[in-house]
Structures are given as structure tokens and as C-alpha cells.
């Protein structure tokens, strides 16, 4: 049995409903923008199914001056490794290099030159600095397809045992590194 | 040159301009498989695969480098004798469902298709419940003296 005053409170509650809905939508939108700013959410990212899977099988030609690597090498790592696909013809990769150079003391980085001439990739690394301890040459782009990349630069964080923990299809920024990548490296390192 | 000849030349020219539109995108004939049946199947699979670079074209329509590489992969798998599903699965395991231009039927997509019907059912159900509750509710109690006085005050003028 409802009394008139019950009806009144119910009507007030119903009127507050759209307001509450707008509030919730606002908070969700703010969280989305915040994630985009810090690199934890990227609407343009193609959902790569390799996440939380072991690294795919791939073959790379060696690319001097560093040693090459295979999927087996990545499966045997005990500390996280950042795998970065780059190319000398890719301007965002060039822009990304100073950031990678800053990161090189904090994280082991292995590079893959994607669809590049070996001599161009080598000269690119001579000019921009070489943050990579291992280097591979994916001249035909087949390793890139195995990893599911659609362009360069793309970066993967591989955890101990060769499990892919994180992926981004945009150039790394200091913000992403400090807010997302390094905390994740810390978590992956201490299981 | 007679008018007929001019017209014929014009027609031939127009036909030539129209031809590239009819041919599917493989821009280098050496890409194509020698077996026409296999080539047709590879084209049918490729037309269902999204070019990850241009995103709204199929790999058969796109001239992006990655699309060319993926066309080659499709043809290798077809030449090996794999069926369409196997090739599609190979692609989806690397690039996710996004690579399908026609999304697969899953719980999520099924829910999407059923949403208009579900929304209508929920709306009709809610309206029906409200209606029944209102019909079942007893008439409001008579006004108290206090309320009568207030009503009189409000309707005085």
C-alpha cells in the first residue's frame, strides 16, 4: 500500500535517475580519456590475440652488430625483455629512439628490423643510437605477421618463460613507460 | 575519321578505363596461383580479410605492403590444400576477430543482433507490470481535514 508521500519520494528518485546515469557516463568517459593519456587504453589498438600467450614461432636473419635471436631464446629469458619492431623508413620509429635510449639501462631490449634493408637498419642504429642488446632482421615481414603486427613501431613486453604481457602499436612515450610499462615490468619480475 | 570510328575509339577507351575496376586488386599477376580454382578460392578468402593498414578495405582490394604479404600467405595456405576455415583460423589467431570483415556469430554478436527484440520485450514487459499494478491498486484514501483545507486555500481564486 503506497501513501501519497511514498509516491512523492518515488517520483523524486525517478527524476534523479537520469542525473545519476549522466554522472556514471561522465566518470566512465573521464576514466577512458585518462587511460588514453597514460597509454593503458588505446581505441586504435587492434586487439592482438598474442597477449598472455607464449611468443610465436618466427625466424630472423641476424643483424650485426648484435646477436640474433629465436623464439626459443625468448622462452628461456628469466627477466622481462622488450621486443621492439622498427624500421629505418619509419619516422615515428626515429622519434621513438631517444625514449628507448633512456630506457635501455632499466630494461633489456631486443630489436627487430621490419621490412628493412640490413644496411639501412644498421646505419639507422648508428645515427640514432642502439638501445638493443639483440637484433634480428625481418626482411620479408613474415616474423611481423606471426606476431600480429600491422605496422611499425610496435612493442611487446615479454615476461619470463616467453609469455607476452603487454603490447602497444604506438611509439612509446615517457608517460607510458612510467605509468604503465615499468610498473608492469616490476610485477612480471616478481612473480 | 568517320563519326563511327570516333565513337568506336571512344567506346574502346571507356572500356579500357573501366577494366581495372573489374579486376580484383592483385596488382601483380605473378602473385596469382596457376590453378584458377585455387586462385578463385584465395580471392574469396582474401575478400573476407581486413587490411590492417587501411582497415576498411579487404586485402584483395588494398595495395598496402601488409595486404600484399597477407595475400601471399593466403595463397600459400590454399596451395597447401587447406580449407577456407583453416586459413581464416590462422589469420584470426594472429590478428584477432578484427581481421574478419564479416564478424563471426558469437555470444556477443548474437546479443547485438537480438538487442532490438530484447529491448522491445523489456519495454512491453515493464509497461504491462506498471499497468497491472496501477489497475490493482486501491483508490486513494479520502482527503484528511488538513488536506481539504489546503486544497480549498489553493483553489480559492
UniProtKB/TrEMBL annotation, chain A:
Which residue intervals define the domain Thioredoxin in the entry? 49-190
The UniProt transmembrane annotation reads: 12-33
Report the subcellular localization.
Cell envelope
- Primary residence: other
Matches recorded under InterPro entries: AhpC/TSA, Periplasmic_diS_OxRdtase_DsbE, Thioredoxin-like_sf, Thioredoxin_domain, Thioredoxin_ResA/DsbE_sf
A Pfam family name for this chain? Answer: AhpC-TSA
Alphabetized UniProt keyword annotations: Cytochrome c-type biogenesis, Disulfide bond, Membrane, Redox-active center, Transmembrane, Transmembrane helix
- Top-level taxonomic group: Bacteria
Gene3D superfamilies given for it?
Glutaredoxin
Q: Has the keyword Membrane been applied to this entry?
A: yes
For this entry, the protein name equals DsbE family thiol:disulfide interchange protein
Q: What does UniProt list as this organism's lineage?
A: Bacteria, Pseudomonadati, Pseudomonadota, Alphaproteobacteria, Acetobacterales
UniProtKB/TrEMBL annotation, chain B:
What domain of life does the UniProt record list for this protein's source?
Answer: Bacteria
List where the protein spans the membrane: 110-131
Q: Which InterPro entries match?
A: C-type_cytochrome_biogenesis, CcmH/CycL/Ccl2/NrfF_N, CcmH/CycL/NrfF/Ccl2_sf
Q: Which UniProt keywords apply?
A: Cytochrome c-type biogenesis, Heme, Iron, Membrane, Metal-binding, Signal, Transmembrane, Transmembrane helix
Nucleotide-binding: is it a keyword of this entry? no
The record's listing under Pfam families reads:
CcmH (PF03918)
Q: Where is this region: Disordered?
A: 138-157
Listed Basic and acidic residues bias regions = 145-157
Annotated signal sequence is: 1-25
> Which residues does the UniProt record annotate as the domain CcmH/CycL/Ccl2/NrfF N-terminal?
16-154
Q: Return the similarity comment.
A: Belongs to the CcmH/CycL/Ccl2/NrfF family.
Q: What does this protein do?
A: Possible subunit of a heme lyase.
Protein's UniProt name: Cytochrome c-type biogenesis protein
